[in-house]
Amino acid sequence: MSVAYLNGRFVPFAQAGLPLHDAGFVSGATVVDNARTYGRKLFRWADHLARFRRDCAACYVPLTATDAELTAIAAELVARNGARLPADGELQVVTFATPGPLGFYVGDAANGPPTLGMVSYPVPERYARFAAEGVTLALAGTQSAQADDVLPPRVKHRSRMAWHVAGESVRAWAEPGAVPVLASADGALDTPIGAVLGVAWGSLYFPPEGTALDSVTANVVRELCERVGVKVNTSPGWSLVRRADRVTTELMLCGTGCGLVGVRGFAHAPGRVREFPVPGPVLTRLRAAWAEDVSRP
Length: 297
What we know:
Low-confidence stretches: none
Largest sheet: 9 strands, mixed
Number of helices: 8
Shape: globular
Radius of gyration: 20 Å
Distance between the termini: 28 Å
Number of domains: 2
CATH class of the largest domain: Alpha Beta
CATH topology of the largest domain: D-amino Acid Aminotransferase, Chain A, domain 2
CATH architecture of the largest domain: Alpha-Beta Barrel
Strand content: 25-35%
CATH superfamily of the largest domain: D-amino Acid Aminotransferase, subunit A, domain 2
Number of strands: 15
């Protein structure tokens, strides 16, 4: 049986759970991070920790554990649960924090203490298929995403209702396994598993600052672009939605679980699908550099 970490203890995964009066359940007030391993080593763990700590502070969720303590917990979790996997199996590691129990639900005057947990699960098999064949994206609609929102889109939190609705809304017309996409007002795209990047006029376009999740993997891709000589653009006026049918020559998806994969189809609506080469020339260069990064000890 796999194990999880919850509030200072490692417990069997099946026994880990939040009380019904925890703010993470009652209000969805949960800050989360999702990291993964390559060769059973956590990839860019320091970057994930920094984002998690920043987002906890931005969302007023107490985080008293030190980076060293969180790192030790993650290492223990990977060692225990990784031993249950096949030799080539890898893990995703989810760290989460909530304000803790809400006292008024049980007649207490005080809230808390805060909740801290960490769980892991095997990297889904579909990501290997995405890497080999590419992925199809299906446009589900729009979602407000402004940098000055009270909960800005750069924060990684547990509420997935928008993605649940998006996924169900495209199920009737998109190809099986298509990943739902939501567009911001300026046409930047985001998905439940990673950021969408587009190639046009010799540059790789990223979502404009503040319009999508602050993606650790997308930041790695920026570094790789500099290494292999690919121009980067974050123009606020760029719209992948409006231009995916015209000047965009490649689309790619990058996220913690899937890594860096090609998009072979972008479905705007039933019967309206733009196809892209997979892998395209820019993705080929970036994936070679990516392979070097993830193979480092």
